[in-house]
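Final report, closing paragraph on structural work. Over the funding period we assembled a curated collection of sequence-structure pairs, and we close with a single example.
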Amino acid sequence: MRETVRDERTGWRDLTLSRRHRAWGVDCPANDIDLLVEVARGIPVAIIEYKRANANLEDSYQSIRSTEILADRARVAFFVVRYERRREKWFFRIERANAIGSAFLHSESSRVPLSLPEIEYVRLLYRLRRRDDRAVLALPAFQNEPLI
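Its predicted structure, as stored:
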């Protein structure tokens, strides 16, 4: 069991509050949520914890697990997604999903882990929202992409 509070590692957060909360001790843990709530027409449909491709998920276990519990209680899909950019191309790998997320992926004939190029990942996000995923092909970000 950890006896000290972890130092801030990335410097991306509001460090003033982060440092102050750490001063409250190990018996007052909190998650600084590094995720996105995916929304369709104002209704949450998924919580996605994004991690860089080289992130150690074991270091984030408690944070990931508590967020998964939150998603379960909210009855929305939960995914842990690693991302990386190689030669100006983005790639996404769904590493973990709660039961709702797994059911969605299985309805898509996919299983975890699932690796996707950016355009296919965005199409999956559209389907998650019950939107026409063909609309992704018209997005400016994908105008020069080869069709898959």
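The chain has four helices and five strands. Residues 27-136 form one domain. We thank the funder for supporting this effort.
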